[in-house]
Write a structure and sequence with these properties.
about 230 residues; mainly alpha; 10 helices; about 0% strand; disordered N terminus
C-alpha cells in the first residue's frame, strides 16, 4: 500500500451537513416571529398558528416515514418515538377547547408539505428533511417549548405543548447515534451532495414558513417590531 501523501479525506457526512447548513440554521433561529413568540410578546392564538403549521408539515413528513419504514436504508431513520402527529393533534384539541382559533396552513407551509409528498421515490430526500426537523426538535426546539409554556401559562411538557415532549428519547445520546447513522449511509459523493442540497432546501422551507407566520401574525401586534 503506498505510503506517500494521499488526498485529504472528506469529513464525516454528518459534519458536512452541519457545516453546510449552519447559516440557514441561524436564519431560522433568527425569525422575528419566533423571537416575539418566545419572549412572550404575543398570545395563544399566535402560538396556535405555529402549531397549525407544524401539524401540516409533520403529517406530510410522517406519511413519508410510513412509506419508507421497510426500506433497507431509509427505514433505519424511521423512529416511531419521534413521531409528532398524535402530540400535535392533542395540542390542537387542547387549544380549541380554550377557544383559541386555529388558522389554516399558510402558502409556504403548503409548499413545504407538497415538497415532502414529492419525495416518496427518493430515500435520501426523506432523510434530509427528517434530519432537519427532528434533530432541530431535539436541540433548539426543547428550549422553545419551555419558553412557550412559561410565557403563555402552559405546563412545560403538558397540555398545549406536547409537541416538544419526547418521552422515550434522550436527546444527546439519540443525536449522537443519529449522526453515526448519517455517517454510515451508503452514498457516493454525488448522492451526498444531492442530500446536502435537499437539507438546504428543507431549511429554506422552514425559514419561509416562519416568515409567513411573521407576515400573518405580527401585524396584529403593533407593539412588536417586525
Amino acid at each position: 500500500m503506498p505510503s506517500g501523501p494521499s488526498a485529504t479525506a472528506q469529513p464525516p457526512f454528518s459534519q458536512r451537513l452541519r457545516e453546510r447548513s449552519m447559516r440557514m440554521h441561524r436564519d431560522a433561529e433568527g425569525s422575528s416571529y419566533l423571537a416575539a413568540l418566545t419572549k412572550g410578546h404575543l398570545d395563544l392564538p399566535a402560538y396556535a398558528a405555529l402549531v397549525a403549521q407544524h401539524a401540516a408539515i409533520y403529517w406530510a413528513l410522517e406519511e413519508l416515514a410510513d412509506q419508507f419504514s421497510g426500506h433497507p436504508v431509509a427505514g433505519a431513520f424511521v423512529f416511531p418515538d419521534l413521531h409528532r402527529r398524535d402530540a400535535l393533534e392533542a395540542d390542537l384539541a387542547y387549544l380549541h377547547t380554550r377557544g383559541v382559533p386555529i388558522p389554516e396552513p399558510t402558502v409556504a407551509t403548503r409548499l413545504y408539505a407538497e415538497r415532502l409528498a414529492e419525495l416518496s421515490g427518493w430515500p435520501g430526500g426523506f432523510i434530509a428533511h427528517h434530519y432537519v426537523r427532528y434533530l432541530g426538535d431535539l436541540s433548539g426546539g426543547q428550549a422553545i417549548g419551555r419558553l412557550i409554556a412559561t410565557e403563555y401559562g402552559l405546563v412545560p411538557g403538558g397540555d398545549g405543548v406536547r409537541f416538544y415532549v419526547f418521552d422515550n428519547v434522550k436527546p444527546k445520546p439519540f443525536k449522537d447515534a443519529y449522526r453515526e447513522l448519517l455517517d454510515q449511509l451508503p452514498l457516493d459523493e454525488e448522492e451526498q451532495e444531492q442530500v446536502l442540497e435537499e437539507v438546504l432546501l428543507a431549511y429554506r422551507f422552514n425559514v419561509d414558513v416562519l416568515k409567513s407566520l411573521a407576515d400573518l401574525v405580527l401585524p396584529r401586534y403593533p407593539q412588536v417590531a417586525s
